Amino acid sequence: MKNALLSLLFSFCCLQLFADGQTILPNLKFGKPTMEELTMTTYAPDSNATAVVLCKLTNVSYKWGIESFRLSYEYKVKIKILKPEGTSYANVTIPYYELQNNTMKENIIGLNASAYNMENGKMVRTKMKKDMVFKESVNENQMQLKFSIPQVKAGTLIEYEYRLESDFFFSIDSWKAQSDIPTLYTEYDVTIPEYFKFNTEMHGAETLKSTNEATSFSLSIGGQLLQCSGTHLNFQGVQLPALKDDSYVWCLDDYCTQVNLELLGIDFPGTLYQSFTKSWEQIDESLLKDTDFGSRLKMNNPLKEEMAALHLEQMKETDEKICAIYTLLKNKVRWNEKYSLYGKAPKQILKEGTGSNADINFILISMLKDAGIPAYPAVMSRRNMGIIPYSHPSLQKLNTFVVAIAHTDTTLVYLDGSIEDGYLSVLPPVLMTDRARIIAPDNRSQWVNLTAIGTNQLRSVVKADISPEGVIAGTRETLYAGQYASRLRNKFRTAKDSTDFVSKLASEENVQVKALRMDGRSLFSPQVREFMEFEKQSTVNDQFIYINPLIFLHVSESPFKQSERKLPVEFPYVDQLSLTVNLTIPEGYAVDEKPESQRIQTGDEKVFCRYTITQQGNQISLRYLFRLQKLLFLHTDYSELQQLWEMMAKKNNEMMVLKKL
Prior knowledge:
The protein is an alpha+beta fold and about 650 residues long. The strands form eight sheets. It has an eight-stranded mixed beta sheet. An eight-stranded mixed beta sheet has the order 25-26-24-23-30-34-33-32. The protein has a five-stranded antiparallel beta sheet with strand order 20-19-18-21-22, with helices on one face. Strand 16, helix 7 and strand 17 form a beta-alpha-beta unit. The radius of gyration is 31 Å and the shape is globular. About 30% of the residues are buried. InterPro entries: DUF3857. Keywords: Signal.
């Protein structure tokens, strides 16, 4: 009776949701596609969709294994392929764990997959054969199962189902309601016995219908049936839009509608309650006791002899000492382009001459402490790996750390082993998170915001003469600081050689580079100074010369081209740019037209641009200033942001006209 009432309620809700008559009703039966599913050619809520998830059912429950509990995940997926580009969804990869030297593992069983096509007015089903299924190793702990469903083309309906059984009963996988194609209907059903206490976290922009109710639970243990109570959770999503990655987004998962279950504790009969809930202070303590974290913080300086040759005692400034230590270390160990939270033995790292950022950072901390400079790890989740939950502490979300260094008694600077082109507090942007936790003993840990550390600034002065032939010849002197200096060094380092660098620079700026000098480019320093001699040909037509007085553009075109945006805009760092241009117009010419001065800004003045142009005799002076002081803009702010960038791009491209007298 109860099941009949639930089915009736579900049918009523669907009729209300799909009353427009343009979207098909969800069919929760597998193996029996409806004619409507087989013949559909487009998905009304998203006519551009290449495919649509018609139904995805995920069921999670506990079972008793040989000696302990196991988790059982049952997946059923039904996808309609709408366009040729959507056929890639017939290629499926399922990750799972198989720990080496450990009895704990996961198994995938009961895999079935089929493709349904309409041929000559009849449905033809093609079942996937075993030779289309492959297993491969990702690393020592992870495997993945891959399969391809055959006979898939535009118009095909595909279905697949499988069960994953896991020994990791203490950790329920996160459930994501959205994917990169729209979803007609998705359901997440979880049944948890009374012995396990979980915290439930839902986040994302889309609405999920949810229920949480008590239920009875039966377990077969050693041939005997055990009855206990439990919790039944159910989440349903209907007509969920596609979640597609976009520019200026660090981690797409941060905005995906999802459900996360984190174990709070285990309460088995006859035993004491085992709590897994931790405060951040307890996580600090756990890390400080960890062999591959806390013990690395206590190690002796492995480069003590080499560091003695630096004669730090002769250096007056702390900056100078820190830079000398870091430069010595980076000459010994190269970053292997991997981020980590835990470190390996320093002897091994120094012998190999390469290591993760954590390996390098632990050695750096030992060297700084040996020099009498306090240094601490600042743990975090990298920006492209998702935010740390605000609702509860989570050790699992931490994936790396940078080094916080006491620059003075009241100020800190930051370094990381992954820095190749930066400086003190000029970190790779992926590490400039808004929540990093400095781990210090004696309960002195603290949260810090790394999004606005350092000064990122570009100041450029151009002096040039314009010839009657329209040739602009002059010099550009530029100061690059912070991230601007880091980017310039990176461009030079990744170029084939200096000739290649100059060629790319000339192409990007649309000038002929006659001479180029850079001071501080190869140093571990806060700034780079550049001096360039250049020529640029402007357009000459009859009696007129057409010139862009800015010469070196800040924004040639807006990066925000789409009319609407569903995701926020996340800029990497705050910055400031200042351009000054002084032009001498040729004798016998006068200014016929020139751009108007203009001030452009957002309502909160966090993004600001000022363009000021003046004339005095045969001298044209242009002052251009841009300032970005805010990193996160919600999708509701997108229209204003898009308009501002379009206005800036238009201003950057405006021309000045000189007329021959």
